Amino acid sequence: MAANGSKQKSDAEWRAVLNKEQFRILRQKGTEMPNTGKYNHFSEPGVYTCAACGTPLYKSTTKFDSGCGWPAFFDAIPGAVVRHEDRSMGMTRTEITCAACGGHLGHVFKGEGFATPTDERHCVNSVSLDFSKDEAEKAKAAKENGKDEL
Ligand SMILES: [Zn+2]
């Protein structure tokens, strides 16, 4: 896995590799409109990577349907995301960024009562993610899903 901060770039460099919406969200901590993201209702088995630097961030096995309008995960790949206190917009929230490039992903909310192993909701912008389908992951996911139903 990429070490923390190993994929940092200047704003000018990011502008060159990201589209306008990706730059607004990943680098300027924007938020996509709810229910518009391409991964909001998406449940293929595979791995979600950082749209900016390609580092794997979330597995499809931790994605769940929260109904909030953005892709939701109950856990990240260990070490892949960093949490920061965010006091913007008159509230205290936990911002999450990609550990490798510092790109803004979204926020983590805790204790909402979702029936997940962590009771956390990583609310992530689809724009901040890419998806890579993984056949091995698919087989594993089928196995894990079988276990969860017990
Ligand atoms: Zn990244």
In short:
With 150 residues, the chain is α+β, with helices and mostly antiparallel strands. The chain has a single domain, classed as Peptide methionine sulfoxide reductase (Metal Binding Protein, Guanine Nucleotide Exchange Factor, Chain A, Beta Complex), CATH 2.170.150.
Key attributes of the depicted protein:
six-stranded antiparallel β-sheet; alpha+beta; Metal Binding Protein, Guanine Nucleotide Exchange Factor, Chain A; 19% helix; 150 residues; EC 1.8.4.12; three-stranded antiparallel β-sheet; binds zinc ion; 3 helices; Peptide-methionine (R)-S-oxide reductase; single chain
Account of the 3D structure:
This protein has a six-stranded antiparallel sheet. It has 150 residues and is an alpha+beta fold. The termini are far apart. The chain contains three helices and nine strands; from the N terminus they run ααβββββββββα. Helices cover 19% and strands 28% of the residues. It binds zinc ion (ZN). Zinc ion is lined by residues 7, 50, 52-53, 55, 98, 100-101, 103.
Structural category is alpha+beta
Helix content range: 10-25%
Q: List the domain count as a whole number.
A: 1
Shape: globular
Distance between the termini: 33 Å
Number of strands: 9
Q: What's the CATH architecture name?
A: Beta Complex
Unreliable sequence segments: none
The rounded Rg comes to 15 Å
**What order do the strands of the largest sheet run in, or round the barrel if closed?**
3-4-8-7-6-5
The number of helical runs is 3
Could you describe the largest sheet, including whether it forms a barrel? 6 strands, antiparallel
Strand content: 25-35%
CATH class: Mainly Beta
Report the CATH superfamily: Peptide methionine sulfoxide reductase
Which oligomeric state applies? single chain
Q: What is the name of the CATH topology?
A: Metal Binding Protein, Guanine Nucleotide Exchange Factor, Chain A
Helix and strand succession? HHEEEEEEEEEH
Bound small-molecule species: zinc ion
- Residue-averaged pLDDT: 92
